[in-house]
Amino acid sequence: MAKKIKNTFEDVMNAMFKNEEAIDWNGVSISVKRTIGLTESLDFVKSVVESCFDDAGVYMPELRDFAFRTNVIRKYTDIALPVEAEKQYALLYRTNLYGSIIDAVDEGQISVICQAIDEKVVYECDTQ
Questions:
Q1: 75 in Cβ contact with 44 (< 8 Å)
Q2: Cα dist. 7→1, 4, 126 in Å?
Q3: Burial class (CB in 10 A: 0-12, 13-18, 19+), 50
Q4: DSSP line for 27-54
Q5: What is the pLDDT of residues 92-103, one digit of tens each?
Q6: Dihedral Cα 112, 113, 118, 119, nearest 10 deg
Q7: Are the C-beta atoms of 20 and 31 separated by less than 8 Å?
Q8: What are the tens digits of pLDDT across the range 74-117?
């Protein structure tokens, strides 16, 4: 008689799909997660929204895309972004790094995160 093995949630999920893949970006191997978990998703939304408001609570929409891109890199990859915002900006807007990564990420999850960011921004603007 064969042994019955109790599968964990992680075993089942790993068997269903591989969540990480290595992409080659200009000769550099980057590990990209296809999806992130609930806690990471909530942190992603919070980080983007907080980045878009100054200390006085004024909404600065010009920062949204930059904050979104940095969070895609931080949450979905193993890349350590430079500390300086100017260097981050150069990496995200003067190279095709972001495009290479976003192509490997689950489109449905990114869409839900974008919607949550939009709704949270509206909420924050309405309650200020």
A1: yes
A2: 18, 9, 47
A3: exposed
A4: TEEEEEES---HHHHHHHHHHHHHHTB-
A5: 999 999 999 999
A6: 70
A7: yes
A8: 999 999 999 999 999 999 999 999 999 999 999 999 999 999 99
